[in-house]
Design a protein that fits this description.
Blueprint: E1 9-11, H1 16-25, E2 31-33, H2 40-45, E3 52-55, E4 65-67, E5 71-75, H3 80-85, H4 87-92, H5 94-101, H6 106-111, H7 114-119, H8 128-133, E6 137-142, E7 145-150, E8 155-157, E9 160-161, E10 168-175, E11 180-188, E12 199-208, E13 211-220, E14 227-228, H9 230-236, H10 246-259, H11 270-294
Parallel strand pairs: 1-3, 2-3
Antiparallel strand pairs: 4-5, 5-10, 6-7, 6-10, 8-9, 11-12, 12-13, 13-14
């Protein structure tokens, strides 16, 4: 390993308040650390950008999954394995479960956390498209108090977020679905597992009286940040199911090209990402219409 352990410092506060006090006293100095899975590659390569870490792993205040009549709230330290194993998450939020399944190997899923996947700010992360499709909110907390931020506005640029240096992600809240709903998740990568996404897409829809009453589309690896495809959403939401024929779907694919901003990089090309995004959108819309018409 090129990383040098003696060059790093770690503080392990006993309480959430203790962690927030450290962040406030030395703003921007301490980097929150939970599962630590995102640190292994840069540490081994000797390119770790931070050397002062605040270990949050033992904070009970950041754990747990709470079920309310209208929402699901996940503690910041909820792991991918816990997401996979929770019965309510499995039955009501299949996109989130599938995104947890495709995140790394089993060891990563046992240690990696949902808030860590968000805070890392990677546009290729696996859970953000599902969180966007489900309309999640993120709670940020500091000594001054807490605030809820719509997840769709959390990322402001590549590896940049609205979180202040003295704030921590403490919880993620998702409204519980009701009625006739449709869920879709697809990750396209070099392999089926243990690969960074070339394109990632998650959709959530609700039908009412033969019409698409609600439709959200979360995307990953096609822009500098995880994003919602708002132009495409507006084209689909409110439409009657019989209107979503092949010509309308072709128009939705064109709208998607206005939403996304893919690039060429070591994993793929912008042209490939555009083609795959359009193809997967067509598949999901066809599957959505078929499911809703059967009911």
């Amino acid at each position: 390993m090129k990383g040098q352990v003696p060059n790093c410092a770690v503080q392990t506060p006993a309480t959430l308040v203790g962690a927030l006090e450290i962040l406030f006293a030395e703003k921007g100095v301490w980097r929150p650390l939970a599962g630590g899975t995102d640190l292994m590659v840069p540490f081994a390569a000797g390119t770790l950008p931070f050397t002062r870490f605040l270990n949050l792993w033992g904070l009970a205040e950041l754990r747990g999954i709470e079920i309310a009549p209208d929402s699901l709230t996940l503690g910041a330290l909820t792991t991918y394995a816990e997401i996979r194993q929770h019965p309510v998450v499995a039955s009501e939020f299949p996109n989130l479960v599938q995104s947890a399944w495709v995140t790394g190997a089993m060891a990563i899923q046992n240690r990696g956390t949902l808030a860590g996947n968000i805070a890392n700010g990677s546009p290729a992360a696996d859970t953000p498209p599902s969180l966007l499709a489900y309309g999640a909110d993120v709670q940020l907390q500091s000594l001054a108090g807490s605030r809820w931020v719509p997840y769709e506005s959390f990322h402001t640029g590549y590896k940049q977020t609205v979180a202040l240096p003295e704030e921590l992600i403490t919880r993620i809240r998702i409204p519980r679905p009701s009625g006739d709903t449709f869920h879709f998740f697809r990750k396209v990568g070099t392999r089926k597992a243990q690969a960074i996404a070339k394109v990632c897409l998650a959709a959530y829809a609700r039908a009412e009286e033969g019409r698409v009453a609600e439709f959200r589309l979360g995307m990953g690896s096609v822009a500098p940040v995880p994003m919602r495809a708002l132009t495409t959403e507006m084209l689909i939401q409110g439409q009657r199911l019989e209107a979503l024929d092949s010509r309308y779907i072709a128009g939705a694919k064109e709208a998607l090209m206005e939403d996304i901003r893919p690039i060429d990089d070591i994993r793929s090309t912008a042209a490939y990402r555009r083609k795959v995004s359009a193809n997967v959108l067509g598949q999901l819309l066809e599957a959505m219409v078929e499911q809703f018409r059967r009911r």
